[in-house]
Write a structure and sequence with these properties.
alpha+beta
Amino acid sequence: MWSAALVSISVDVFLRNDSGNLVILTTPPDESDLVGHDDTRHTLWGSPAVRALGATVVVGLSIGDVWVDFVALDDLVNDCELILKHLADVAAASGRGEDYIRFRIGNLRAATERARAHRAGVVIWAGHGDLVYAARPAGDADPTAA
């Protein structure tokens, strides 16, 4: 039986290579890409508590995947800072522990820093599995290679 609660939301760095193809960069092995389970779209990221803080990017998860271009990375960072500033209130309202939220905010911030280093964006999405690693055609050069 399928359950949406088993679907994980991940954050990945994306860019377009010279051919215009979408490239999803692999998360380094010492980092995590976890943002939450699918239910956190509504219970945490798009919750009334987070909306009341004035968050603008993460609340988009309540209606679907969120693509954040390089020029909008600061907006995502601002959302993270707002949530951390009011962590106790957000945790209480969402039913998620402070450590749970802090860990996922850390993953969002780390992805944002990786995106900045590559002049890329981030995508926060669920249920895409192998699409993440199949985004670059085999014949295309690795855009991150020196």
